[in-house]
Design brief:
257 residues, alpha/beta, six-stranded mixed sheet, 9 helices, 41% helix
Length: 257
């Protein structure tokens, strides 16, 4: 039996993390979601800072060409047969921080936007807890098409689609990457290690696609928001990971209200 002091400490840590992730009370009933997630624009946004506009405009144009000329019409694997549309990703074209998930789900396939369902709402809360907005980061997936029944991506699908992801990252040139979940972390790091063993520390990711070639980008693997919805106790671990990223970027956590 867990000692009362240890149980109290664990509960307080959970409540603290829930509050930081925008959740003010614990749910009474399971499976009921009354939150209405914000719908981000599919367009890559141009930042307002004048000094950043030329690079951002160039990146926007390059990302648009990649999306419209390669991704939207892609038929490299069988997933194109069942998709409603591709999900390229969206956000800041010169983002300092990029989030990479595994694949679109039902809502993403329907809207053409990355992370807009329940997991997307939690990701939005996580980003806000880092004192950022979705417009200031870039959010995408390894796969650009939804796998049937939201199953894990297959090896041949990752092989066919991941070059688009690597090209996106090469264009954006982020300072830090966050891999959300095992498939994203394994793809970006070319490893078979579990997310439980990978998370909690930075790994080197090379934009060149070749280990040791060019500058390395710090990559933090952490749990996928969909996993956290099923396993809320691991939100505290995820917050630890996000705090390491914040320290790397010089960010300060938002104040609780």
């Amino acid at each position: 039996m867990t000692p009362p002091d240890e149980l109290r400490s664990s509960l307080m840590q959970l409540l603290e993390t829930e509050a930081l992730f925008g959740i003010r009370e614990l749910p009474v009933r399971r499976g009921v979601d009354t939150a209405k997630p914000a719908r981000p624009s599919r367009e890559v946004r141009i930042p307002s800072a004048p000094a950043a506009e030329p690079a951002a405009e160039n990146n926007t144009a390059r990302l648009r060409v990649l999306d419209e000329q390669q991704v939207k019409g892609c038929q490299k694997c069988g997933l194109h047969q069942g998709r409603t549309q591709t999900v390229f990703g969206q956000g800041h074209p010169s983002a300092r921080l990029v989030f990479v998930g595994e694949a679109p789900g039902f809502e993403e396939d329907r809207t053409g936007l990355a992370f807009v369902g329940r997991a997307g709402q939690l990701l939005t809360n996580m980003i806000q807890a880092m004192s950022l907005t979705r417009d200031e980061v870039f959010i995408c997936n390894v796969l650009k098409c939804r796998p049937p029944n939201n199953r894990d991506p297959a090896a041949d699908e990752i092989s066919a689609c991941s070059p688009y992801l690597f090209e996106q990252l090469s264009i954006i040139q982020p300072e830090v990457l966050i891999a959300l979940g095992s498939p994203a972390a394994k793809t970006l790091l070319n490893t078979g290690e579990s997310i439980g063993r990978l998370r909690g520390r930075f790994h080197d990711f090379y934009l060149s696609g070749l280990p040791g070639v060019g500058a390395a980008v710090p990559l933090m693997p952490t749990y996928h928001p969909a996993y956290l919805l099923r396993n809320p106790a691991d939100k505290a671990k995820t917050w630890d990971d996000l705090q390491k990223v914040m320290a790397k970027l010089g960010l300060t956590a938002r104040k609780r209200t």
